[in-house]
C-alpha cells in the first residue's frame, strides 16, 4: 500500500530498495577495538573484561570511561504516532527509528540503539525506559502519541539522571521557533502582533505552540484544532497540556479562525489544509505544513492560493525543511559532551537562536557545494539551514554545552576552545591540521589571484576566504559572468568592495601585462603578437604576470586542464635563480592521521639531486602544519635488496642527504608497508633510523607518488590538501580539477601565509 500519494511508483520502489539492499536495514554494529589475536580476545572478553567491570562496580561514573555509554543514545518508540502515519505499531516504526539512529551518527557522531517496544500503557513504558538507564548516556523518545508522551516523558525525567528528550515535542518546537523567528523577521511582524492557527494538538502541536507562547505570541492569539475541532473549554476529552490551549466563548471553525490569520502551523496529517482556506489568511501568510511524509498542503498549492506565502514543510525535497533533524543530533551532542543531567529550557533556547542565526549568516563552502544550484541566501525560500550544513554541529553543540554549564546541569568541565576544535575537526576534516596555517594566514594580508575566477568553486572559495582570512582574492574572469554566478549562488561578496576582478577582455593593465610577458619570453620565441594573444586568452599566464609584477602575492590555478600546462606558464614568469619548482607535495588527511606524499607532479623521474631537494622541501612544509617530519624513501627495493632504478636513485639520494647533517628524521629505501608499519621495519632492518610510523612518503617518480595519492583519496577516504607546489616561495599553486571548495580555501590559506614566518 502506498502511503505517500505524492511519491511516484519509481520513487516508492527506490525507497524500498534502499532499505532492502545490499543488506536489510540501515544500521550495523561495529567493534571499535582490534579483535585479531588471542591477546585481544583476552583483553576484550574474559579475563580482561572483568577489570573494567570491577572498576565500574566500584565507581559507577567510570561506565563512561570503559564503555560506550557516554556516546550512546536510546531511540525509543512504541509506534503509536509514527510520522503522520498514526498508530502503526512498534515493529512498523523500526525504519523510522533506524533512520533517526543513522542521523544521530551521521550528523553528530553519536551511537544509537533503536528500541521498539510493544507497550501501549504510558506508565509501563516509562518504567521500562527508566530501567535502561545503565546502558545509555541519553534517551530520545520518538513517535509516541499525545497525551501518553507527556506522561512517559515526565516520569522518565523525574526518575532518570540522564537527559530524556521527546524529539517530536521539543526537537520540533525548537526548529519551528527558529523558522518562525526568521519568517517573522522577513515579514516585519512581531510575535505579539500575530494570529496563529494550529492544526494538530498532539505531541508536536502542543510543544510547538507552547514554544510560540514563550517567543511572545499571546495565548489568546493561538487557536488550536484537532480531529474533533477547536480545543475549547467545553471539551472533556482534553489532557491538561491541551487544556492550556482551550479557548473560551463560542466555538469557532477552522475557516473562521484562518480568516486573516498570519501563521498556520500544521502538525496533523496529509492534505488537511485546503487552498480555499489559505486564500482567507492575511496577505503573505506564513504556512508551516509539517506533517510527514505528506504535508497538510503541498507547497505549489499553497503558493497558487497565496502567491506571497512563506512556506515550509518537513520534507527534504522542498525549500525550508522544518524538521527536527536540524536539532536532535546536535542538542544531544552538546548535552552528552558536558555530561548534562537534563536538557533544560536554557539549552533549548540556545539551540533555537543558533539555528535561526545560521540561516541568516552566509552559507559555508561545503553547504554551497552539497546543494549546488540552490540559492542559499536568507529569505522566504531559505528560512532555516539545510540539514547537511556542517556548521550545525559546532554551532549548536557549543551553544548547548555553554547553556548547560551556565544553568548548572553540566557534570563535566570542558575547555570550550578545545571543544570547538574537536567539533570542527569532525565536520571539516582538514580544520584541525589547517588551524596553524589559517592562523598564519591571518598574520599577513596578501593578495591571491585565482586564474579561473569564473569557476563556481573559486567564487565560493573567495567568499569563504574573505570571511576566514585577512587576504584579498582577485578573480580573473568576465565581470558579468562572475557577478551572475555570485547572485545565483546567493553569496554576498561584491567586486570592488570585497575582491578585485581582472577582466581579460578589457583590463586597463593589458598593455603592461603583455609587455612584461614579452620581455620575459622574447628570447624564447615569443613575438609581441603572440604575447598579446596569450595575455588576452590565457588566465594562468595573466595570473603569473600579475605575481611577477607584484600586483598579487600568490596565484592559484588548475581547476581545469593539465598540471604541466599550468606549470609551464608559472615557470616562464616566476622561476629564477632562487625560485624553481622542486616538487609537489600532497597532504592526505586520513582517519589514521595526516600522511604526506611527494612528488606527485613535478619530477617525472627523480634524480638523486632532485630527490634530496624534494625531501628537504617536504620536511620544511610538513613543519608548517605543526608536524615533525618522519620521511620514508619508498621504492620497490628495500634496504639495498634489489638492483632497480628507483632503488639506485633512493640510495644515491640518501647519500646526498646524509652529507648535509639535517635536523629531521628520514630513512630509505623501503617498501611502503615498512614505512607505515614500524614493527615490520624493525624486523627487516633493526638499525633503521626512523622511529614509529613514517608521516611522509617520497617516491622515485610521479607515477608511483600519484598512485599512492589517488589510492589514498579514492579507497581510503583521504581528504587532500594540495598539491602544494614546493620551491616557488609560495607564489604559485596548481590544484587539480577534482578540487573542492574547501580544497581551494585550504590552498588559499597556504598561499595567504607569509612563508618567511615559518623560517
Ligand atoms: N516536521 C517535523 O519535524 C515533525 C513533524 N511531525 C508531524 O506532525 C504530525 C503529528 O505528529 P505528533 O504530534 O507526533 O502525533 P500525535 O498523534 O501526538 O498528534 C497528532 C495530532 O494531529 C491531529 N490530527 C490527526 N488527524 C487530524 C485531522 N484529520 N484533522 C485534525 N487534526 C488531526 C490529532 O488529533 P486527535 O488527537 O484528535 O486525533 C492530534 O492532535 C505528524 O504528521 C508528524 O509527522 C511531528 C514531529 C516533527
Ligand atoms: C520528523 C518527525 O520526527 C516526525 O515526523 O515524526
Ligand atoms: Mg517523530
From TrEMBL:
Domain Malic enzyme NAD-binding: 169-405
Pfam families: malic, Malic_M, PTA_PTB
Domain Malic enzyme N-terminal residues, every copy: 24-157
SUPFAM superfamilies registered for this protein in UniProt: Aminoacid dehydrogenase-like, N-terminal domain, Isocitrate/Isopropylmalate dehydrogenase-like, NAD(P)-binding Rossmann-fold domains
One BP annotation, GO: malate metabolic process
Keywords: Metal-binding, Multifunctional enzyme, NADP, Oxidoreductase
Gene3D superfamilies per UniProt: 3.40.50.10950, Isocitrate/Isopropylmalate dehydrogenase-like (3.40.50.10750), Malic enzyme, N-terminal domain (3.40.50.10380), NAD(P)-binding Rossmann-like Domain (3.40.50.720)
Family in the record: In the C-terminal section; belongs to the phosphate acetyltransferase and butyryltransferase family. In the N-terminal section; belongs to the malic enzymes family.
Name by which UniProt lists this protein: NADP-dependent malic enzyme
Amino acid at each position: 500500500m502506498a502511503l505517500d500519494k505524492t511519491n511516484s511508483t519509481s520513487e516508492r520502489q527506490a525507497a524500498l530498495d534502499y532499505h532492502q539492499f545490499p543488506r536489510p536495514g540501515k544500521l550495523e554494529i561495529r567493534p571499535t577495538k582490534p579483535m585479531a589475536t588471542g591477546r585481544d580476545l583476552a583483553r576484550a572478553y574474559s579475563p580482561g573484561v572483568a577489570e573494567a567491570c570491577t572498576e565500574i562496580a566500584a565507581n559507577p561514573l567510570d561506565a563512561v570511561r570503559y564503555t560506550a555509554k557516554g556516546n550512546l543514545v536510546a531511540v525509543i518508540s512504541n509506534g503509536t504516532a509514527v510520522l503522520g502515519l498514526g498508530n502503526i505499531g512498534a515493529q512498523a516504526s523500526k525504519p523510522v527509528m533506524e533512520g533517526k539512529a543513522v542521523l544521530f551518527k551521521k550528523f553528530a557522531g553519536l551511537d544509537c540503539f533503536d528500541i521498539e517496544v510493544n507497550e501501549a500503557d504510558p506508565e509501563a513504558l516509562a518504567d521500562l525506559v527508566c530501567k535502561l538507564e545503565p546502558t545509555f548516556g541519553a534517551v530520545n523518545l520518538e513517535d509516541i502519541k499525545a497525551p501518553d508522551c507527556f506522561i512517559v516523558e515526565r516520569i522518565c525525567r523525574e526518575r532518570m539522571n540522564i537527559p530524556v528528550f521527546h524529539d517530536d515535542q521539543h526537537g520540533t518546537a525548537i526548529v519551528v521557533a527558529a523558522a518562525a523567528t526568521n519568517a517573522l523577521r522577513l515579514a516585519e511582524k512581531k510575535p505579539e502582533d500575530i494570529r496563529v492557527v494550529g492544526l494538530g494538538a498532539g505531541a508536536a502541536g502542543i510543544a510547538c505552540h507552547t514554544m510560540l507562547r514563550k517567543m511572545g505570541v499571546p495565548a489568546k492569539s493561538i487557536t488550536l484544532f484537532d480531529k474533533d475541532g477547536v480545543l475549547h473549554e467545553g471539551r472533556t476529552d482534553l489532557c491538561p497540556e491541551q487544556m492550556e490551549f482551550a479557548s473560551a466563548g463560542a466555538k469557532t471553525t477552522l475557516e473562521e479562525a484562518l480568516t486573516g490569520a498570519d501563521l498556520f502551523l500544521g502538525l496533523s496529517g496529509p492534505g488537511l489544509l485546503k487552498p480555499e482556506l489559505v486564500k482567507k489568511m492575511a496577505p503573505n501568510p506564513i504556512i508551516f505544513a509539517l506533517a510527514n511524509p505528506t504535508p497538510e498542503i503541498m507547497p505549489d498549492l499553497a503558493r497558487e492560493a497565496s502567491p506571497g506565502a512563506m512556506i515550509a514543510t518537513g520534507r527534504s525535497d522542498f525549500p525550508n525543511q522544518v524538521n527536527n533533524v536540524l536539532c536532535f543530533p546536535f542538542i544531544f551532542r552538546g548535552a552528552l559532551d558536558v555530561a548534562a543531567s537534563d536538557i533544560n529550557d536554557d539549552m533549548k533556547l540556545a539551540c533555537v537562536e543558533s539555528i535561526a542565526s545560521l540561516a541568516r549568516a552566509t552559507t559555508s563552502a561545503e553547504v554551497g557545494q552539497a546543494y549546488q544550484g540552490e540559492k542559499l541566501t536568507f529569505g522566504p525560500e531559505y528560512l532555516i539551514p539545510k540539514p547537511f550544513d556542517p556548521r550545525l554541529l559546532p554551532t549548536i553543540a557549543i551553544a548547548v554545552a555553554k547553556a548547560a554549564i551556565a544553568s548548572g546541569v553540566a557534570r563535566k568541565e570542558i575547555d570550550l576552545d578545545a571543544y570547538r576544535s574537536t567539533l570542527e575537526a569532525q565536520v571539516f576534516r582538514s580544520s584541525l591540521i589547517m588551524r596553524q596555517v589559517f592562523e598564519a594566514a591571518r598574520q599577513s594580508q596578501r593578495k591571491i589571484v585565482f586564474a579561473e575566477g569564473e569557476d563556481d568553486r573559486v567564487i565560493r572559495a573567495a567568499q569563504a576566504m574573505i570571511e576566514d582570512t585577512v587576504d584579498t582574492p582577485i578573480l580573473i574572469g568576465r565581470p558579468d559572468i562572475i557577478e551572475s554566478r555570485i547572485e545565483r549562488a546567493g553569496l554576498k561578496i561584491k567586486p570592488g568592495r570585497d575582491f578585485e576582478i581582472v577582466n581579460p577582455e578589457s583590463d586597463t593593465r593589458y598593455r603592461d601585462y603583455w609587455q612584461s610577458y614579452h620581455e620575459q619570453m622574447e628570447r624564447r620565441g615569443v613575438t609581441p603578437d603572440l604575447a598579446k594573444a596569450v595575455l588576452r586568452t590565457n588566465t594562468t599566464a595573466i595570473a603569473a604576470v600579475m605575481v611577477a609584477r607584484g600586483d598579487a602575492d600568490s596565484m592559484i590555478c588548475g581547476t581545469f586542464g593539465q598540471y604541466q600546462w599550468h606549470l609551464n606558464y608559472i615557470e616562464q614568469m616566476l622561476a629564477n635563480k632562487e625560485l624553481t619548482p622542486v616538487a609537489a607535495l600532497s597532504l592526505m588527511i586520513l582517519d589514521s592521521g595526516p600522511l604526506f606524499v611527494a612528488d606527485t607532479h613535478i619530477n617525472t623521474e627523480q634524480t638523486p639531486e632532485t630527490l634530496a631537494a624534494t625531501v628537504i622541501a617536504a620536511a620544511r612544509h610538513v613543519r608548517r602544519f605543526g608536524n615533525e617530519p618522519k620521511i620514508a624513501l619508498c621504492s620497490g627495493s628495500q634496504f639495498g635488496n634489489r638492483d632497480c632504478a628507483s632503488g639506485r636513485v633512493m640510495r644515491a639520494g640518501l647519500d646526498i642527504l646524509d652529507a648535509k647533517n639535517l635536523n629531521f628524521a628520514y630513512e630509505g629505501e623501503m617498501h611502503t608497508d615498512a614505512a607505515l608499519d614500524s614493527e615490520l621495519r624493525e624486523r627487516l632492518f633493526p638499525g633503521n633510523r626512523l622511529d614509529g610510523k613514517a608521516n611522509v612518503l617520497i617516491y622515485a617518480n610521479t607515477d608511483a607518488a600519484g598512485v599512492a595519492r589517488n589510492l589514498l583519496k579514492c579507497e581510503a577516504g583521504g581528504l587532500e590538501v594540495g598539491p602544494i607546489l614546493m620551491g616557488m616561495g609560495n607564489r604559485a599553486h596548481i590544484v587539480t580539477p577534482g578540487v573542492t571548495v574547501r580544497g581551494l580555501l585550504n590552498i588559499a590559506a597556504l598561499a595567504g601565509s607569509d612563508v618567511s614566518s615559518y623560517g
